[in-house]
Amino acid sequence: MILDHQEKPLASWTGKDRIDGKIIDCLTIIFKTGGCSWNRCLMCGYKFERHDHKDPLFLKNSIISQLNWISNNYETGKFRLIKIFTSGSFLDPVEVPEDARNEILVRFSDKIVIFETRPEYVNDKVLDEVANLMKQNEPGRNFYISMGLETTNDKIREKCIDKGNTFNDFRNAAEITKKYGAGVKTYLMMKPLFLSEKEAIEDMKKSILESAPYSDLISMNVCTVQSKTEVEYYWKRGAYRPAYLWSVIDVLLNTDCGIHVTCDPVGGGKKRGPHNCGACDYDLVDAINNYSLNADREYLKAHFETDCKCKNEWKFILENERPYGMPLTS
Amino acid sequence: MILDHQEKPLASWTGKDRIDGKIIDCLTIIFKTGGCSWNRCLMCGYKFERHDHKDPLFLKNSIISQLNWISNNYETGKFRLIKIFTSGSFLDPVEVPEDARNEILVRFSDKIVIFETRPEYVNDKVLDEVANLMKQNEPGRNFYISMGLETTNDKIREKCIDKGNTFNDFRNAAEITKKYGAGVKTYLMMKPLFLSEKEAIEDMKKSILESAPYSDLISMNVCTVQSKTEVEYYWKRGAYRPAYLWSVIDVLLNTDCGIHVTCDPVGGGKKRGPHNCGACDYDLVDAINNYSLNADREYLKAHFETDCKCKNEWKFILENERPYGMPLTS
Amino acid sequence: MFEVTKREGPARTGVFSEGELTLNTPCVIDTIETFPSLGTMAYSNIPLYADGEFCGRFLEQQGEFFISHPASPESLKAGSGAAVMVPNWHTVITDPRNYVKWILDMKTRHPPDTMWYAPASALPSNVATLIASGFDLFDYIAVDLKTSQGIFCNPDGEYPADEYLNGGTCGCEGCLKGDLKLHNRIALESEIAKVILRIKEGTIREYLEKQSLNAPNLVSILRFFDREHKFAESSTPVARPIRLYTNSGDSINRPEIKRFMQRVVSRYIPSRTDAAVILPCSARKPYSSSQSHRKYMGAIRDRAHEIILTSPLALVPRELEGVYPAGHYDVPVTGYWDMEERNIIGKVVEDYFTKNRYEQVFVHLDGDAAIIAKDALERAGIEPIFTATGNSPTSHDSIRNLEQAMAGLPRKSHNYIRGMLSWQFGVDVDTSGMIIKGRFGNRKVLKKKTQLFSIENETGLYRPTFEGWEHLAGRYTVSIDDFVPQGDILAPGVIGCDPEIRPGDEVFVKGSKAIATGRASMGSEEMIGSKRGVAVKVRKVKKI
Amino acid sequence: MFEVTKREGPARTGVFSEGELTLNTPCVIDTIETFPSLGTMAYSNIPLYADGEFCGRFLEQQGEFFISHPASPESLKAGSGAAVMVPNWHTVITDPRNYVKWILDMKTRHPPDTMWYAPASALPSNVATLIASGFDLFDYIAVDLKTSQGIFCNPDGEYPADEYLNGGTCGCEGCLKGDLKLHNRIALESEIAKVILRIKEGTIREYLEKQSLNAPNLVSILRFFDREHKFAESSTPVARPIRLYTNSGDSINRPEIKRFMQRVVSRYIPSRTDAAVILPCSARKPYSSSQSHRKYMGAIRDRAHEIILTSPLALVPRELEGVYPAGHYDVPVTGYWDMEERNIIGKVVEDYFTKNRYEQVFVHLDGDAAIIAKDALERAGIEPIFTATGNSPTSHDSIRNLEQAMAGLPRKSHNYIRGMLSWQFGVDVDTSGMIIKGRFGNRKVLKKKTQLFSIENETGLYRPTFEGWEHLAGRYTVSIDDFVPQGDILAPGVIGCDPEIRPGDEVFVKGSKAIATGRASMGSEEMIGSKRGVAVKVRKVKKI
What's the mean per-residue pLDDT of chain C? Predict the structure, then answer.
């Protein structure tokens, strides 16, 4: 079963995830693929994590080799949930050749699989194929398609992210997904470039409410400063500041859309990630993580209500940071 | 009568002077002599105005020649009063050989003569000789001996002037003078070195009152900054400031000793002489001169009561300038 | 509508008015209250560092302010009188190179009579620099932010409020009440008031040098501006009736000093080149009123051209000793000339003597000054004669030496008129028959009985009469339209002018209906570029 | 009684107490009310410029102050704890040369633990200079005088009250009431409060550089003091846990900078002299945490001794990059090195490489820095190899060049311990077996399992343990009497000490009954000369 040629994926880790109110063991895999065909998003640092070769056969072999590495290095049987990322779209045949894609799906067809794709690759033909490959060995959905909607505001998506698609594209893809019994996991992006702290919060709250009807899971990413991105260019020049953790919690606590919105504040408390003043960051990151997993609103709320010297600053920023005078802090 | 050899005195000028309540025409002569034998006073700039020769015959000839220049250049008959200065003492035989002195006295024996000397040269022998030379052609005194008492405070005279004599020396000389029917003209020195403005005023008021019993005339000199003197040394370094004109008037107005104290504020309004702020100086110098001549107290008082921006400063100085923090202005 | 009322380089005072609103600038206000459109600019952020392509796609002109961006198209210009905002200016304050580059780019692109708003930027410690960069309008955002962070602002910097608010360092109402926000706002308002008075007095540069020491980036901003000499120079007054203090190491690069140096080398014409003697300066100004210079002049007795070597002006020919800033500067003296001043001054000496070839050059200097002159003259290919000996140029021996060195040289008075006219107007005037008459404070230049110039006491500048202007070859002319000026000439009336004109310059006004003499209130760029404000204060008008 | 509580060169805070009276200095009070004898000194004036003969005749010690005069006899000394007055000090403020000369004369003559009163001198604009000269007590006379003259005082200077009192430049109670006297007094009090906080923070020098720009004479005073380096250096802390800003042209002459330069040349011992490479500095400190230095170090890979050329510190050997002020300075950067810094820095480079003869010297610099190094090395008789090419030392080509130049050189790690110990204690320690352990923030030097030093995070200084002191050859020892220290060691307990000790130095305390480790609170001169105050903050005591 184990092949000779084994290539390590870009990354892989295990953890717990909350799906449909249950906490289950989860394996996350990031495959090195042909790379995102769009490849223009301003905050995306995965642009360089791709094979230079675009030859489908080469890509297929590489991806399957990575899959084998996973099988060889994890007891895959232990995990109920497999989350698959590439640096682009799992359903993009240029990036992930179809037979490689299918091989992966077959390998994990006894689990819940979540994979990420841009909506333009979600169509009946592909979904039909995918659905057929995934066995239905217990009740409930056994695969989810996650899509980076980022925001429901097309203007922001265009200017601040340069995502190249629309809310409507997402909705269409979501409808197709549902048609095939799969779930939709929606990724939203908190505080991309060019938004004031308040604009970012408002955009996120609105996006959660507006995307919920089309989503089964919602995960809010908080923009971080990744190497060699536009975001980093501006950040280095004092023209971008990642969101305050206060803002993240504000969004999580004060947006009721019926779906438990999860958030993994990557880089939380670091300069390049969502952060406060440094004194309160550790506790708040912890509270957010706890909330994502346990959905314990009260616990998060208690943290939101504790005081820190930076809370005044944050309140001031919300009221006074304007598009023509921002960011006010770093 | 007019001799060939004629040497110009150091200076000579005509004017009006007030003596015994009358205003009379006056000729002032400053003879170049052998120079002051003491020659140490800190403010005295006449130290260098002397013959290098000390030979009595040379000096006699020079002085008589200067006397001749005066006779030749002024209608001496017009003047009732002759004021004689040397850079030292008229009665010092080393400075003014006796025969030269006598020649001068004889020449002006029909007038009132005032000459200046240090008290140590006033003795019975000389006074007897002088009194005999001066004809008594009208009632009243026909000669006055003026002496630079400067202050009645021996300590100040020693430290601040280095005069080398005492109030007692002065009193003795004044008594001898009176014995020979001559008048005593007392010179006082306002604000020598090392006195604050207030100390200077107080010293002067006290000196006027204390010297009046021994004086027929009192003239108050206000210290000026003369070339190459100790006063100039300190003045250049900001460590001496000549008196305010306000102070001069204060002394004149507020000291009632029964004698009209005159004052010629030499260099008045200039940096090196008594001065105020520059704006009011001209008027005040004028008022002081007027007072000296006309003894018009009201006119002077009116000027003292006018306001100027520097009056506050002066009042402040009087109250706050201390021996350990002075001068406060320049 | 915006009108500049006084210029000190890019710093200025002005009046902005629109309807009921009148702002005397520079000033700090609650901008969003006064300009409500600022509150409706959602999602409009364009960072300063964005490129032209991004600006082109997303920069929208909206609201009450014209929005200026370093990368916006050259063709996009604010109108005269407009309020201009440079969004996010606070983000470039720690980036001196771009700060200065962008100010230059933007300020030269838009008309001078526009009010400039730097949002979220002003602190008591940096507002002098912002104003000196040409900003006029500020808000409370930066100080209020500091308040929210528990930071106490004063004109020196930002400090922990717990130590400073009760530390007795400030006696304002905010401090008395323990109200940090009030203190911080008052501190900013007070600082702006201070800067305004400095602009009015003409001492903003001295203050700027001082305030720049608050932070390394402020020093760098000052230095980058100084490297771009022309930018500030074009609106820096040609003279002021006050002292100029060159206390800082950066003073030598201020526009007035560089301008003086450049004019001495490029404009000034000496009236004799047979012999020059280089003399030390004196603390007293003009030099010739000092004791030391009386000695030198007594020894020289007009047998050589007297040129004073001094820091930071480099060379002051005797004829120019009274003109601003030669008669007005004051500098810390320790006897030590630092290498930077040696270098700059040495270069001027070299250039001057390379251009003006004297047959003989006497150096009557000692110490560092003598070395500077020696090295510079050597570079100019001149072997000078040193006349100061022993301990000091004023010593008996030195003066005797100087006197002996002059032996045999012809006497020729300094031609003050030609020297000054060449320096002030850049022309070589035939001054034969012209003489200076009158006591100090009321000096005039006459030719026969006709007055050509009066000499301004406070600045040393020459003020031409109509007859005087006839000698100045058309320089410093302001062309106006076909009207007869009633009072001062306003900027819109100007149709052209000599590019050399600076605020305070004497100018000749020429139109088809009238000529006039007067003094420029603004520089040539502003005369041409502005639609508001007094261009020339007219002294005399003549219909033609 | 007077006790100094914190020293920043001659500037200090202290407490004066006598009976009911307690003064926290520096301060301004109505001196004549507090010290009534001042009111009874009639006819006692002795100008500062009086000579010794005059002083001898007329200077009387009277009243509550010991009267100090520049010309009074050497033998006349104030007692420890006394209040000292220098009468008429205000008259020398415009005479920088004598000002500094006399301060040096008088301050070295009298004990350090005396309170110094400068009568009639203090204005908001000059009091920083007065305090930095060692004065502690001031009166209101100078500001009240300004009030009487209608002059408004602020920390920048003196101005016409009619413009300033209502000009909005100050929000104090006096200004609000239109009370000039009150304003002027508050301004002085506030300024002193500001200076006190600066002394406490350790930033008085930065403030002094700024405040000196108020007037040419204040700049000259600063410069004359800087020439007398040793005077201020002896009481300047050896390190501070804060940034050091070198914003002014005079910063290069501040005691901390000169001291660093001198120690690098005279004390520091490099651990290899086969090859050195001179590198550019980086804005980020320590340098090795910067991107550029990571590149250089990656290319060098311990095949040469790394030495950083930087303004204003001149040379920073890699081993010293973390120590104060190398890890703490911030400087305005424009890419231009002025001639004065070139000269000073070049001299250090020359001296360093003349003393430490490397077999090969690589210069990995560009622009002005490369020229400075080249010229200095030439003077030291060294022909270096230049490894930076093209546009920048960090360019791909430059880094490759550097890497290639290193080929064949032996790898040898930098000996941080030996480098730092030589610099800090002036000793050459055999460091074999010693290693640095621990994470940043908690680094220690061990030998086998014995800890010899801990490394202070904020300053980079080495803190010896008793075992560590055994390696330091008796340097930095404070000798005490035969007692066992209970808590800190007070000045009277000190019977001798290493003259090199400065405030903040690590010291070894040695007495017949005990030894101790600790940190000096005062410099050696003060330890010996004072009768009050903490001399050494003791960390550990051991009875013997």
Answer: 96
D2-233 placed in CATH 3.20.20.105: yes
- Asked if residue C469 has pLDDT above 70, the reply is yes
Interatomic CA distance for residues B198 and D42, integer angstroms = 10
For the record, the structure tokens of D39 come out as 């009111």
Q: Does A238 touch chain C (CB under 8 A)?
A: yes
How far away is chain C from the Cα of A207, in angstroms, using its nearest Cα? 15
Which of C33, C45, C146, C217 is best to mutate for the A interface (most A CBs within 10 A)?
A: C45
pLDDT at B136: 61
Question: Looking at the complex, does the CB of residue D29 fall below 8 Å from at least one CB of chain C?
Answer: no
Domain-located, residue A329 = no
D156 min Cα distance to partner chain C (Å): 8
pLDDT higher than 90, residue C465 = yes
Quote the CA–CA distance of A269 and A245 in Å, as a whole number.
Answer: 8
Break chain D into its structural domains and give their ranges: 2-233, 268-405, 425-543
CATH topology of domain D268-405: Rossmann fold (3.40.50)
Q: Which residue has the tokens 């323990």?
A: C178
ipTM associated with this complex: 0.94
pLDDT of residue A48: 83
What pLDDT band is residue C148 in, cutting at 50, 70 and 90?
Answer: very high
For chain A, the domain total comes to 1
Residues of C in contact with A238 (CB under 8 A): 91, 94-95
**b vs e for C358-393, b when ≥16 Cβ sit within 10 Å of the residue's Cβ?**
bebbbbbbbeebbebbbebbeebebebebbbbeeeb
pLDDT > 90? residue C303:
yes
pLDDT band per the 50, 70, 90 thresholds, residue B2: very low
Q: C119 at the A interface (CB within 8 A)?
A: yes
- Name every chain A residue with its beta carbon within 8 A of the beta carbon of C90: 325, 328
Distance, in Å, from the CA atom of D255 to the CA atom of D404, rounded to the nearest integer, reads 40
**A320/C141 CB distance under 8 A:** yes
Distance between CA atoms of residues D294 and A62, nearest Å: 34
Stated length of chain C:
544
Residue showing tokens 């546009």? D391
Q: Are A174 and A214 in contact (CB under 8 A)?
A: yes
For the segment A85-114, the average pLDDT, to the nearest whole number, is 92
Q: How far is D463 from chain B (nearest CA, A)?
A: 48
Instruction: Decide: B239 and D89 in contact? Cβ < 8 Å.
Output: no
Q: What is the pLDDT of residues A213-240, one digit of tens each?
A: 999 999 999 999 999 999 999 999 999 9
Chains D and A touch (3+ CB pairs under 8 A): no
Cβ-based contacts of D212 with chain C (< 8 Å): 247
Query: Which residues of chain C does D95 touch, with a Cβ-Cβ cutoff of 8 Å?
Result: none
Give the residue-averaged pLDDT of C40-68.
94
Average pLDDT of the residues of chain A: 93
pLDDT less than 70: residues of chain D:
none
What span, in angstroms and rounded, lies between the C-alpha atoms of B259 and B188?
13
**Superfamily the domain C424-543 falls into:** PUA domain (2.30.130.10)
Nearest CA to C93 among C51, C132, C151? Answer: C132
Tokens of B192: 């020598």
The Cα B264–Cα B289 span in angstroms is: 6
- Helix-, strand-, coil-residue percentages of chain B, each rounded to 5: 40, 15, 40
| Structural domain span for residue A291 | 155-163+185-321
Q: Looking at the complex, does the CB of residue D250 fall below 8 Å from at least one CB of chain C?
A: yes
**D159, D208, D247, best to mutate vs chain C, most C CBs in 10 Å:** D247
Pick the CATH number of D425-543 from 2.30.130.10, 1.10.10.60, 2.30.42.10, 3.40.50.1820: 2.30.130.10
Interchain contact C29–A (C-beta under 8 A) = no
